[in-house]
């Protein structure tokens, strides 16, 4: 709940009509008006011609923040990371759904995800990972038209008040430095043959 100058020390509440001890009396509200542009889809790509995941592979690895390139997919740092070392594994083809991938793309997406985990563990000692993809805008995909899998490294105690209260993510390293470290470590990573142990 927020407080306003409605009187010295008087909490300010937003009146909700006909609530009658409903949700507004139980839940506090965290207002996030900056997300409205995201919800409305403002500035979202309208096709492959302006899709960032289609444009990134045309850039140099440094400019595109690409860590590794495969035959059908590539690994890139997230420009808006949830944690330091947040990678995405992205097919070159502009397809929206996991079911649209070929068997070769599925295999390489899985292999690059495994390598991403090994590399981030080697470079930064990640304790765990959130691995996944949001399929469709309704499921939270920021760019729903081009499939991408997230690999977010996690450490014990990495969630704190800063993102919630301060609207700030604390990242200890700039993205270009992170990309260089991960790319160098990626090249040292021995490839794992399909069906092999990793």
From TrEMBL:
Motif Histidine triad motif positions after renumbering to this chain: 146-150
Active-site residues, record numbering mapped to chain: 148
Signal peptide: none
InterPro entries found in the cross-reference section: AP-4-A_phosphorylase, FHIT, HIT-like, HIT-like_sf
One Gene Ontology molecular-function label: nucleotide binding
One Pfam family of this chain: HIT
Source taxon at top rank: Bacteria
Keyword Nucleotide-binding (UniProt): yes
Keywords (A to Z) from UniProt: Hydrolase, Nucleotide-binding
Gene3D superfamilies the UniProt entry points to: HIT-like (3.30.428.10)
Domain HIT: 52-161
Residues that bind substrate: 78, 150
PANTHER family: AP-4-A PHOSPHORYLASE, HIT FAMILY HYDROLASE
Stated name of the protein: Diadenosine tetraphosphate (Ap4A) hydrolase
UniProt organism field: Blastococcus aurantiacus
């Amino acid at each position: 709940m927020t407080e306003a100058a409605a009187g010295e020390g008087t909490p300010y509440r937003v009146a909700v009509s006909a609530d009658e001890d409903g949700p507004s009396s139980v839940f506090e509200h965290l207002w996030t008006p900056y997300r409205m542009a995201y919800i409305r889809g403002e500035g979202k790509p309208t096709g492959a011609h302006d899709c960032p995941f289609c444009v990134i592979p045309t850039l140099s690895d440094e400019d595109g923040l690409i860590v590794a390139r495969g035959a059908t997919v590539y690994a890139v740092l997230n420009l808006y990371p949830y944690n330091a070392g947040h990678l995405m594994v992205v097919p070159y083809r502009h397809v929206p759904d996991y079911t649209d991938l070929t068997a070769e793309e599925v295999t390489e997406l899985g292999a690059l995800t495994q390598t991403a985990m090994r590399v981030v563990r080697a470079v930064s000692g990640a304790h765990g990972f959130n691995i996944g993809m949001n399929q469709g805008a309704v499921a939270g995909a920021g760019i729903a038209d081009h499939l991408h899998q997230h690999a977010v490294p996690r450490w014990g105690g990495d969630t704190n008040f800063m993102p919630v209260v301060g609207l700030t993510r604390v990242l200890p390293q700039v993205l270009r430095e992170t990309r260089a470290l991960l790319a160098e470590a990626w090249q040292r990573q021995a490839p794992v043959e399909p069906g092999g142990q990793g």
